[in-house]
Amino acid sequence: MEFRQLHYFVAVVEAGSVSAASRRVHVAQPALTRQIRLLEEDLETRLFERHARGMRLTVAGQALYEEAQALLDRRTRLRARLTALGQGVVGKVSLGVTVTHLWVPEVAGLLRRYRDRYPRVAFEVFPLLSGPQLERLREGRLDAGILYLDDGGHPGLEARRLEEDHLILAVPEGSSWAEAPPARLSDLAEADFVWGFRSASPVYYDRMQAHFQRLGFHPRVVQYGADNIAILSMVAAGLGIAILPAASRCHPMPGIRFVELAELRACEMPLWFAWRGDNDSPALRNLVELVTQRD
Asked: Using only C-alpha atoms, what is the Rg of the chain?
């Protein structure tokens, strides 16, 4: 029993005769008659009572007609679903985003454009620092990540530059630095700094440290925060000042004043969109294409 035969059978039932059905399905009447007989032979039962005034379903034929409609409908839905999956218009994408950049307009805009174009694809967004993101990408536990990477490349990963960023100074709103901002990093030699751990984002940490070494700047670190949001909270509480990505300004954190310094602006902190090269998810492919279109 083939789906094609079920389709012909349903057409005969609904048209009321083989001749009318042949016109509906665009199959010659002899060929259509043969397919109905082959179906009856395969099922070893008569499906129609044939008489001079037409054809009437047998009890078995009526049962098959009810089941055939359901089977053909399920086949149509399945084909549509598989086609949608293959084209990446349904499904899900798991995406890591550095904690700082969850509020950045460029990142939010990318997610919104993807959602507008593929509304039936669900996002699973994980706020993760660059180090944990890189680990999950390598293990295949993330489809893609928005994170800090070095320019040397990472085996098994593809990447596109997503946004240009730099460093900025964050100080408590009520501090003297907010009233009289420093002109150079050397003015902050005696300031207390809140810092992050290298393991959270090794590429970001090393790039920042290398920049400070070139300038001969050695911050006096007295507090540590697990991520940039924790660091900002500590700055807002008056525990020190901090140097962070300029994207931190997008986070709605009260009690903070951000200060631009030429020496900090000179430290480029590009943000990358990365994914495993062997991930063949159509939904991910569509997201990659959307990122690439911005280049």
From this structure: 32
**Model pTM?**
0.66
* pLDDT of 201 higher than 90: no
What sections of 119-199 are H helices per DSSP? 130-139, 176-179
Residue 49 is predicted with a pLDDT of: 81
CA 265-251-173 angle, to 5 degrees, is: 75
Q: Which amino acid is at 191?
A: A
Placement of tokens 């050695």 in the chain: 218
**Bridge partners of residue 170, in order along the sequence:** 242, 258
Supply φ then ψ for residue 223, to 5 degrees. -140, 155
* Statement: residue 120 has pLDDT above 90: no
pLDDT of residue 211: 95
State the Cα–Cα distance between residues 3 and 295, nearest whole angstrom. Answer: 47
pLDDT of 294 > 90? The answer is: no
CA distances (Å), 138 to each of 36, 164, 232, 270, in order? 55, 24, 30, 21
Residues found in the chain: 295
Sign of CA dihedral 112, 113, 117, 120: negative
CA angle 205, 208, 213 (to 5 degrees): 120
